[in-house]
Design a protein that fits this description.
Helix content of chain C: over 70%
CATH class of chain A: Mainly Alpha
Number of strands of chain A: 3
Shape of chain A: globular
Number of domains of chain C: 1
CATH architecture of chain C: Orthogonal Bundle
Strand content of chain C: 5-15%
Strand content of chain A: under 5%
Distance between the termini of chain C: 54 Å
Chains: A mainly alpha (361), B alpha/beta (284), C mainly alpha (301)
Strand order of the largest sheet of chain C: 1-6
Helix content of chain A: 55-70%
Number of helices of chain C: 11
Structural class of chain A: mainly alpha
Oligomer: heterotrimer
Structural class of chain C: mainly alpha
Number of domains of chain A: 1
Amino acid sequence: MKKTLKLSKTSKGNFATYGMVILAYAILQFLGSNAVREGGLLSPTLRGQLVPICAYVVMALSLNLTVGILGELSLGHAGFMSVGAFSGTIAAIALQNTIPAGGPRLLIAMVIGAAFATVAGILIGIPVLRLNGDYLAIVTLAFGEIIKSLITNLYVGKDANGLHFSFITNNMRLGEGGQMLLNGPMGINGINKISTFTAGFVLILIALFVIFNLVNSRSGRAIMALRDNRIAAESVGIPVTKYKMMAFVTSAALAGSAGALFALGQNSLISTKFDFNTSILVLVFVVLGGLGRMWGSIIAAAALTILPEALRQFSDYRMLVYAIVLILVMLATNNPTLKGFFAKLFRKPEEVETGKGGEGK
Amino acid sequence: MSERVKREPTKLVPVPSTNIIPERDVDKTPILECRHLGIDFGGLTAVNDFNMAIGRTEIAGLIGPNGAGKTTVFNLLTKVYQPTRGTILLGGVDTHSMSTVQVNKAGIARTFQNIRLFANLSVEDNVKLGLHNHIGYGMWTGIFRLPSYWREERIAHERAMELLSIFDMEGLADVKAGSLPYGAQRRLEIVRALATNPSLLLLDEPAAGMNPSETAELMDNIVKIRDTFQIAVLLIEHDMSLVMGICEGICVLNFGQIIAKGTPDEIKNNPEVIKAYLGSRKEG
Amino acid sequence: MSFLNHLINGMGLGSVYAIIALGYTMVYGIAKMLNFAHGDIIMVGAYVCFFATSTYGLPPLVGVLLAMLVCTVLGVVIERLAYKPLRQAPSLAVLITAIGMSYFLQNAAQLLWTPNPKIFPQFFATTNPDGTQQTAIPLFDGALNLKYTTIVNVAACVIIMLALTWFTGKTKMGKAMRACSENKAAAQLMGIDVNATISLTFAIGSALAAIAGVLYLSSYQTLVPTTGSMPGIKAFTAAVFGGIGSIPGAFLGGILLGVIEILAGAYISTQLANAIVFAVLIVTLLVRPAGLLGKPVAEKV
């Protein structure tokens, strides 16, 4: 009896999150439809932002798995996005003639992006996950920078004989009808935009499905146990590396598919797009949305991707405002005095009477 | 009681152990045997020449003044630290080169002096984590919620509730472990350790912070656990009423060395033990 | 001979990293936070010195002192306003606040001083009789070029390192600092003013950042509002490389990092120099998880 009750309690929150995403999709689709378009309810800028928003939402969700659920700070998450973006885009361009239809090609690109990011996640996870705390964080940062450098120096071309690669200097001699796909620091140009808002929406649902179901399973419990108390987890027979790896690699794979989605919604792509600042940006989404809180990540990622656009009227001041908002939010939500003050401010009077302490981070 | 007589002829305890293997366990190999166990931290010898054996269903006590190295012994047994010297035999199997995880799978479970629960998870999830290696489905089954997910989770839930019922904690199943009162947290740690299906349960100061009536209840429960699960219990405790009340064999540690071993009565009257606890008359 | 040249240049660059890393490591040691705004303090210091010398025509030494003053005040104010209210907060919240502060400084600099690059003056040069500027001492018939900046960098770094070692080891304030980094609560019980000690640490760290900013820009000349972030990250890497929290570690880590960066650029690939630096860091941490001179902290069970 109790079991069904409890499950429905956890599931209720999860279903609410699914519902929120589906509702947001429906509303935006309606606003974007031709009937309403003339009313100008959805500005062209916002419409152009829909795919990146979806990509960043998935990035935030996946990083929340590492930071919120596994409890390890990663400062190089953009690296996995980069791996997914470049591998997925190269696959999409290479397959342009074989599979002309955009939808299936996007699906393949996202799968390939996820696959390459998985491999990167495993390769990086093996050394990184042996470390702890701030040391782990700095090593993820280092890997993010290494991935950026490697892709900046990678050249990929295609001709009748298949794909060709070269590193640092482009010494490729492509055959008849050959085409450069990735041009080192110049990146990829002339991308045929095949990402759609619907594809992004589906990817968000997939990410939520994977994360929610993982968290509420035997493996997810083990991952959270490592976060709460590693030594106790070992003492009850939970292998640390296996479950750290599971969370880290799942997170990388999701980031890879988000990268492919993002890239195939752009005209061109350069590796410096996915630098330390992008990793930090996604981390900000996760922390502001709340560690381990998936709906929070979704809202934070969406809101903070739109915010700089919304602040456009402040033009030069917008990033300054963004920085100040960020600091104030952190202070307001984490300082005991300020937290109490804000809690009183936003709480119904009768609740103040009971004097219950505010909850949540 | 004729334990002493029974113990003498056994060849099963080759190390000089005066621990009392209960009569019912004498014809079996001891569950735990430590031979010349020792560990150094840098130049400091924390535990040295630690020899002890515990019977299959014995409740044994490890006592000694603060800093005597009791918890270090637990950390050696569970391989939180690798011993510098000596061997640990668990059911006759050498645990050399095993990790903490492997030792747990081999049958040692423990609680911690400074409580280490999974504070953000529910009481039930804490117990289910103890059951982790007895739940038989993997990552993909969990993500796609295949039939075996539901079946295994149901069994785990029932088992968890059954274990929680030892301490009448079923009603707290949904409570966050970190928000439990202190005594309940200690009890939950014991339940979680039991869930791993151990053959030896190590309890590190289980009665710390409990009042006399709670301690009395705990004593009954430890004996009940031993009788129900037929396992051995080794406990560290400062509360002498508990140690003298339920332990069949006691080992006294001071400055990393065993200074006395024997039955509660023998220990109570051992001058070395009295000196270690109260200091010699001169110093006093 | 060219190897020796690269080695010396590497030490020059490494000295700058070391000075920044010293600030990083001290702040980390005492506040246990990754102060990502530290790199941007370097930038502010460089701008102050640039305007003092180029616009107002003050002598370089006055420029440096002014930069140190401004950065010290800035560092202390940042700590008081943004970090102090979060003393009890989870470390991730402090990290995000530091990142917010870094954005703030960069964007404020962009508004105040425009994103257009400023060319930093060449302080360490002598004028030849024919009017050309000389920035290096040629040795062995020009086979070895010893740049003035390199000499100044290494000298400054060594002096600062020795001064800090003396300060933390011998003075009362320095001992208070070490006590706070060991255990704040216990330090407070012993009558140490923890808040003042933390402020002092930020003050010292920021003043060092100002010096590093001037030295860094004397070698690399192009000054933009984001100038500080890369040396900031590198110095952070250097601090971790040497063992974060350790003063000799930051020194060693900084020098090694600079040398590796220059040598990798010279002999392997300029484009991959950064990647190689980070790869060396990763390998080092795998072999010595607490850095070269750091002491591993075992969790008590």
